Amino acid sequence: MAIFFISLFILANLIRPFEWLWPELQQFQILDILVLCAIFFTVLDMIQRREKLPKESPWLWLMVGLFFSVVASHAYHTYFGGIIESVRDFARIAVVFILIVINTKTLTQIRWLVLLFITSALVVSFHCLLQKYTGRGFANLAPMVHYVGDWVRTRSYYFGIFSDPNDTALFLVSSLPLAWAYFWDGTKKISYLAIVCVTIIFLAIITTESRSGFMALVFLAGAYILLKFPINWLWTIVPIAFVALVSAPILMAQLGWTDESAMDRFNYWGEANFAFKSSPIFGVGYGLINDFTYQSASVHNSFITAYAELGVIGYTFWLGLIIFALFGMLRLNKMITETTEDLQIQALSTGLFASLIATCTSGFFLTRTYYLPLFIVLAITAALYSNMANKLGWTVLNQYCGWSIKNVWLASGISLGSIVYIYLFIVALN
Q1: Which of 81, 89, 72 is CA-nearest to residue 284?
Q2: Do the beta carbons of residue 292 and residue 275 sit within 8 Å?
Q3: Model confidence pLDDT, tens digit, residues 286-338
Q4: Cβ atoms of residues 163 and 127 within 8 Å
Q5: Which SS3 state, helix, strand or coil, does residue 190 take?
Q6: How many domains does the chain have?
């Protein structure tokens, strides 16, 4: 029963019918009720020993570490009101993540959650296309209108957590590779349903006119190209990627890709970095970084927000969830396929890898550090890895993927390296 309530929660959170179809449901805190029901049945199953914590899963402990880092970010400053508020806010994300990891055991269940994600994206896409071509979407919601001289520019957007065109685009881009992977899973030569779904979502992304969304599409294509290379080619690709990262800010400045909006973002990044220097270990506090920016503006960068609010420790847990997911899916993608189920796992690992790449790309220009769809994808990733581990054995799969205590230090090194890179990125653009 737990997976039933988890499914309802995912649909309710992504489609958000209580905001446009049944607004009277908002007074009942329906999302919290669904989470509590899922918790109840999960605990019941654990008591009856039908479910258990996957203690070998690195994602489970990284999420626990991230949760305590959120609490510590306020405890360090003795801000007890902040502790209560942050626990209340972030607990839902952490609990939903853990519930998915515990209850999603079989490949059928994993594919079911992916299908819910895709279905939600198609509903949002239909709304965006209605807005663009009829002038009204669900609940008679009109698109955003911007006037540039005599030119009228419209941007589609959705409700709730997707009430900004950039957020809508981020969700749709992250669902695009999942739709392709689900319907074209390697078991058939061609899937017209995959082509139709991807086309609908792609056209909806265009209607948002989101620059971060378009950039995510470019990196999404790059992720698919990367997965075509043998794993030993990574040592050739990594240096090329390093050169690209180093030259990116210089090229942006030289080519004039620094308009007023972009420069404002870079200034906010600098202000957040300055705040980070005041408390580099535990951060300035979960949800408080806007107190340090001009006119309490959003930082417009998920990575900077993470290390500024949570410090190096919390940022390592946050980024570690993503790093382990990316590397784990990269390795699963390279496994030898012998059965239909193997092909489906390979397809899903490809889709999840590309989805996370797209989300991280867009997140570099948006503050979506605690973005629930990101954690849903991460939880599905962890569930897929656990599914393979239960077949092959955790020791065998962990060795194949290279999990060891060294990876913990590697994740810490990457976290520190990314902070240094972002700092130099900002200096180069200013």
Answers
A1: 72
A2: yes
A3: 999 999 988 888 999 999 999 999 999 999 999 999 998 998 898 888 887 77
A4: no
A5: coil
A6: 1
Region class of 22: left (phi > 0), else alpha (psi between -120 and 50), else beta = beta
CA distance 95 to 100: 9
In the chain, the amino acid numbered 195 is I
**Dihedral (CA of 409, 239, 419, 368) sign:** negative
Is the pLDDT at 259 greater than 70? The verdict is no
Q: Which pTM was predicted? A: 0.93
Q: What residues make up the domain containing 300? A: 2-429
Alpha-carbon distance of 200 to 170, in angstroms, equals: 15
Instruction: Give 356-394 pLDDT, tens digit per residue.
Output: 999 998 998 899 999 999 999 999 999 999 999 888 888
DSSP-based three-state secondary structure for 156: coil
**Pairs from 339-344 (Cβ < 8 Å, separation ≥ 24):** 340/187, 341/107, 343/185, 343/186, 343/187, 344/107, 344/111, 344/185, 344/186, 344/187
- What are the helix (H) ranges across 76-158? 80-103, 107-134
